[in-house]
Amino acid sequence: MPVAACPHDVRYHLRTRVAELPHIDEHAAWIDAEPDLVWRALGKVVAANSPPRARPFGRLLGVRPLERSGDPLSVGSTILGFRTARVQPEAELALEGEHRFSRYALIFRIHPASGGGSSLRAETRAEFPKARGRVYKALVIGTRGHVVVVRRLLRSVKVRAERSQAGARPVDGSGIHA
Q: pTM of the predicted model, to two decimals?
């Protein structure tokens, strides 16, 4: 399936393409669920991580985009601090954003595992221009706060997808999922 291109959006346009940003890190989780369930869980978790109560902090940082619009699994949609740049359903979701101290991208990739289940990888790319950017990088990346947040996202997707998978399995007469 082809990857959807990132159309020009008058309201918000990141100056740097996702692939041009320097690689920061990558984290992975094995999930006992099929890729379609992982994909749906990813969309719900990403949407839930953009609560209205976070907008004042986003405004303080100068995040773009600041408003939420559309479904995060659709190109051009936005959540606080991120815009959906690329979508390959059940395979890749690339989010991009920027604020006063950084331009960044978070790319999720889903791979089916042989014998069932899926691997979900989260790759972070970012640049931190000028001295203020380097200070911000030390605070966010250097303290491992970023790692905690990304791993929490992966765990949330895992829990949600595995619950969906368990609900989708046939039940035998004992009430135990097969």
A: 0.84
